[in-house]
Design brief:
Bound molecules: adenosine-5'-diphosphate, sodium ion
Helix content: 25-40%
Largest sheet: 9 strands, mixed
Subcellular location: Cytoplasm
Strand order of the largest sheet: 5-4-1-8-9-10-11-12-13
GO molecular function: ATP binding; metal ion binding; ribokinase activity
Subunit structure: Homodimer.
Pathway: Carbohydrate metabolism; D-ribose degradation; D-ribose 5-phosphate from beta-D-ribopyranose: step 2/2
Radius of gyration: 18 Å
CATH architecture of one domain: 3-Layer(aba) Sandwich
Order of helices and strands: EEEHEHEEEHEHEHEHHEEEHH
Structural class: alpha/beta
Distance between the termini: 10 Å
Shape: globular
Pfam family, one: PfkB
Strand content: 15-25%
Number of helices: 9
CATH topology of one domain: UDP-N-acetylmuramoyl-L-alanine:D-glutamate ligase
Oligomer: single chain
Number of strands: 13
Length: 302
């Protein structure tokens, strides 16, 4: 079985709930406060571990208390954190989140140590094999992602690139990627056109992403599931209704992590997408991101 090697972000998500969002200059009383593990990279590595693949996280935290707590927490999900660097000159990435009673939110992100992740750090940490799957997102430097993609391609490892937050990636870089994963909004940004609004336009969008260069593309559609394309074939995979939807935070990361785990176990792409969709639909059943991944079923190597 291959490994899932995630190079990416790790944050402390500090969430305060309020009756309504404050106006500029206003002070409000919060109604609850949580500190949680976050960052797309960390979440995806946790999901891959719950899905049963050996999962390695390469990233950076600061030499502060938040960093220590996050490293322990990620490790408790079964992720190998031995290549997670503690950077003496940086603070841990933080997301300051406000959620109102009506469900509106504001988010302020301070990248901190995430902005200091380097491709060299990844190259020094691991030697990928052809069985391994390297997973990237949009929360570390674009040039770092590009260098990692070129390196992964030379080693023969497959890459899953979750372009989130989305940005325009050069076609010569995308041509080296196995699978691009984006949600509807991100698909619109990557393609430079209006975001797909339904399953049919998502199928078109997935095919259009493949035209940009990657071998495969997956467009996730929240409660509507996901659409994938390999340029010839495409398919809409509906979401599963496994129970009441409690919190959709981290659903996309659950899908990416489980998809990567299935690919590391050498599942066919259509089946790996199903595993990803199922993991996403499982993550919405409980509060939080990684905190909601305990229900993800371990996959079996075929
Ligand atoms: P992101 O968080 O990146 O925007 P999505 O919201 O598209 O990602 O969700 C990713 C996956 O999680 C979907 O493909 C689907 O399988 C699952 N999912 C998301 N929202 C729901 C929901 N309300 N009900 C069931 N499954 C969901
Ligand atoms: Na959740």
């Amino acid at each position: 079985m291959g490994r899932v090697i995630v190079i990416g972000s790790i944050n402390q998500d500090i969430t305060v709930t309020v009756d309504r969002l404050p106006e500029p200059g206003e002070t409000l009383l919060g109604t609850s406060l949580t500190y949680r593990l976050g960052g797309k990279g960390a979440n995806q590595s946790a999901a891959a571990a719950h899905a049963g693949a050996p999962s390695l996280f390469i990233g950076r935290v600061g030499a502060d208390q938040a960093g220590m707590v996050l490293v322990d927490e990620l490790s408790s999900h079964g992720v190998d954190v031995s290549h997670l660097l503690v950077d003496e000159d940086a603070t841990t990435g933080i997301a300051l989140i406000t959620v109102s009673a009506s469900g509106e939110n504001t988010i302020i992100l301070d990248a901190g140590a995430n902005g200091r992740v380097t491709a060299e750090q990844a190259r020094e940490a691991v030697e990928p094999s052809r069985e391994d799957v390297i997973v990237l997102q949009g929360e570390i430097g674009a040039e770092v992602n590009e260098q990692v993609i070129r390196w992964a391609h030379r080693t023969g490892a497959r890459t899953v690139f979750n372009i989130a937050p989305a940005y325009e990636v050069a076609p010569e870089v995308l041509a080296l990627v196995d699978c691009v994963v984006v949600n509807e909004t991100e698909a619109g940004i990557v393609l430079g056109r209006p975001a797909p609004q339904d399953a049919d336009s998502a199928l078109d969008a997935a095919a259009a992403v493949v035209d940009l260069g990657p071998r495969l593309a997956l467009v996730t559609l929240g409660g509507h599931g996901a659409a994938w394309s390999d340029g010839d074939r495409s398919e809409h995979v509906p979401a599963l209704r496994l129970g009441p939807v409690v919190d959709t935070t981290g659903a996309g990361d659950a899908a990416v992590g489980a998809l990567a785990a299935a690919l590391a176990m050498d599942w066919d792409f259509p089946e790996a997408v199903r595993a990803g969709v199922r993991a996403g639909s499982t993550a919405v059943l409980a509060e939080g991101a990684a905190a909601s991944y305990a229900g993800i079923e371990p996959l079996q190597a075929p």
